[in-house]
Amino acid sequence: MCQLFGFTIVATVAALSYVMNMCPEVLYPDTEEPTGKGLELIPGGVEGYLKVQEEAPVSVYDEEAKRYNFGRFKKPFKNAATHKLNPAQYLTQHKEWHWTALFAQDAIIGVATLQFGYVSHAIAYHYNVTTDEFEKQKTEILLAGLPLGAKHFTEDGAPSSVVNGCSKFNFMSEMSQCYVPDTSAAVVSVNTTFPSGRFEMEYEMDLSSDESLNFVYPIGKNRPSIVSKMSGAPAKGWFKREADTVPTHITGLGMIDWTRSLAARYTVWNWAAFSFVDAKTSSRVGIQLSAGVYEDPEGRGVESVLNIDGKMTAIDKKFIFTKPTEERLLIDTWKVASEDGDIQYTFTPRESVGGAFHLYILDGNLQHMVGTATGTITHKGVTYEFKKIPAVLEEHVALW
To answer: How far is it, in rounded angstroms, from Cα 381 to Cα 384?
Structure first.
């Protein structure tokens, strides 16, 4: 009986998603625009949008003017709340995810909470490049709009776990990603179970001085994607496995990718990220790259970002992700390069922390691959080289 009830609820949500996205004017008049075309409809157009402003408005959505503050900024919004969504929008279009990671010289520990309305995920993983040890844990909950799902919230009612709150997941595993205003730090903690046994970890990133890339992108006139990206901030923490008698302490560079979106029905992207300390200059280097989503009319992504010693540069270029054949997607080496060749490297996957979901008319495949990267980044006449450093790369295709 319970299984039949669950099947009926999920089928109802899926049907609602289909109606809402195929006939959006019925429930939601603000439909999506072709990729990049939304930038032409906002004040300032494409040229104005590409300028990264120093300060962000207090709120993403201007309640008085009834419009979004579309643009790109070096500081995050204090209030990242959308306009009031009806239940159908919340269950079908509203998507959120919060990924954080600590990159050490030869290891990475990562955490992600993802909430897609009808399903939510919590992910934690640890990869040691030197020993090739990899462990992961993934929890999935259907009907995530219910109280058990991953929640992104703040106590003051202005939901944003980047500047004034937490992303939490408490079901079989305990995961939290919080911003602590008193110390200007992002604090991440996990208590979960890997195949080898219980795994605990905690780390924090110092966000007191580093710049970040924050933007509100127009999928439609009143349909935003709100994104905050922080790359290469100083980080430190510890992890402890069930068999360990004492914790293992770890230092490195932290990264954040936070998104709240009224997502397009069909969404595709490639995304990649890594951080390292350059051997020649001792500079902190953090980079996040993407293709296929959040692009201008020329096909150049607007969310790729490079941080050198805390200074942020938006990389408004096309990036080419050359992938292996589908059957060897998670085995063979990828190639990633900017159109001008200033950024080029290879990525070799070790493991994927994702998978496919097939919920009737909802269909998708998210592969969050963890592995190593080797290549170069040339910026302002300086070339930064890296070899077999921890890195992540995603391929995402969803009809949701």
So the answer is: 10
Question: Is the separation of the CB atoms in 137 and 173 below 8 Å?
Answer: yes
226, 224, 229, 225: which is closest to 213 by C-alpha?
229
- Please name the amino acid found at residue 34: P
Rounded (10°) CA dihedral 142, 144, 149, 150:
110
The predicted model scores a pTM of 0.89
Per-residue buried b or exposed e for 328-349, using 16+ beta carbons within 10 Å of the residue's own CB = ebbeeebebbbeeeebbbbbbb
* H or E element, residue 59: none
Asked if residue 229 lies in contact with residue 212, where contact means CB atoms within 8 angstroms, the answer is yes
pLDDT category at 157 given cuts 50, 70, 90 is: very low
- Residues 303, 396: Cα–Cα separation, whole Å: 16
Q: Using the structure block, give the residue that is written with the tokens 């050359």.
A: 322
Say if residue 258 is exposed, middle or buried (CB neighbours under 10 Å; 0-12, 13-18, 19+).
buried
Question: In the predicted model, is pLDDT for residue 28 greater than 60?
Answer: no
Contact status, residue 139 vs residue 112, Cβ threshold 8 Å: no
Compute how many other C-beta atoms are within 10 angstroms of the C-beta atom of residue 281: 13
Amino acid, single-letter form, for residue 171: F
How many percent of the chain have pLDDT more than 70? 85
The C-alpha atoms of residue 238 and residue 249 are separated, in whole angstroms, by 4
**Radius of gyration of the chain from Cα atoms?**
20
The answer, yes or no, to whether residue 394 has pLDDT greater than 50, is yes
**C-alpha–C-alpha distance, residues 231 and 349, integer Å:** 21
Residue whose tokens read 């990828």:
334
Greatest alpha-carbon pair distance for the chain in Å reads 66
Identify any residues that bridge with 258 across adjacent strands, giving them in sequence order: 98, 228
- Which pair of structure tokens corresponds to residue 292? 């296929």
Mean pLDDT of 207-215: 94
Enumerate residues 6+ apart whose C-beta is below 8 A from 120.
Answer: 113, 114, 140, 141, 144, 149, 150, 169
pLDDT confidence tier of residue 148, bands split at 50, 70 and 90: very low
Residue listed under structure tokens 């490195």: 252
The span from the CA of 154 to the CA of 139, in Å, is 23
